[in-house]
Design a protein that fits this description.
single chain; alpha/beta; 10 helices; 6 strands; globular
């Protein structure tokens, strides 16, 4: 969970400097002169970028909000508690925001992403819904020399995920250096913290009586697992 929220905070910092939208948020006091009228300027002086966390009340949403709370250059806009499941209000806030962080299950993220009706709002998705979608930028700036710039200019950024981040960060440099063949057969055994399992699993592992470790998600069915794995392999080689 910490890896996920740190990554999301980094993506937001990068996305907030998006060249295609940054001009609208620059102070123009030094450029316009003290006699010039600002009434017709297409931007506001010293305006803060609006951030909407869709799913703010969840485990990830709460941590993302906490990490952004100290940012004086951002304005967090929140939905009223009684309207959290109101599709119309969520859609309104999504289109009002400059950047939306989707902290939702996969299907809900896909639905929310479809509600964007402008070419300005940046989406950062915390689920796996768009992780290897060709129309979204894989949110791992250290992936290659060009990846950070791609994230800066993107309007759709996917969270790379904790396990893939660990694997790619280890293997990609070795592939680039020629120390591991791109088609080398590799296996990774990994264990994560319990917070990734959501509120239910957090409650279990923060109680007095629990197992030292365990597995979860046995009933989960991932569609297209094979193609997803091949996409991750692609991130480990020069595409």
């Amino acid at each position: 969970m910490i890896a996920k929220t740190c990554a999301l905070s980094l993506f937001l910092s990068i996305a907030a400097t998006n060249p295609s939208g940054s001009a609208a948020f620059l102070s123009t006091r030094s450029a316009i002169g003290h006699h010039a009228s600002t009434d017709r300027l297409p931007f506001q002086l010293d305006a803060k970028k609006k951030i909407f966390i869709d799913g703010e009340a969840g485990t990830t949403g709460l941590q993302v909000r906490d990490r952004l709370a100290g940012r004086e250059d951002l304005e967090i806009i929140s939905i009223a508690d009684e309207l959290r499941k109101d599709a119309g209000e969520r859609k309104r806030l999504i289109n009002e925001a400059d950047c939306v962080i989707l902290c939702l299950p996969d299907d809900a993220s896909k639905e929310a992403a479809s509600w964007v009706e402008n070419d300005r709002t940046v989406l950062i998705d915390a689920s796996t819904a768009f992780r290897v979608d060709d129309d979204w930028t894989y949110g791992f700036p250290e992936l290659s020399k060009s990846q950070k710039e791609e994230i800066k200019s993107s309007k759709r950024i996917s969270n790379p995920g904790c396990y893939p981040t660990g694997f790619i960060a280890l293997i990609r440099p070795l592939v680039d250096a020629g120390l591991i063949a791109p088609d080398a057969p590799l296996t990774v055994n990994a264990v994560s913290g319990y917070s990734g399992g959501g509120k239910g699993l957090i409650e279990i592992y923060e109680s007095d009586d629990h197992e030292p470790w365990g597995a979860y998600g046995y009933s989960m069915v991932r569609i297209g697992v094979s193609s997803t794995i091949h996409q991750f392999i692609g991130f480990c080689i020069d595409r």
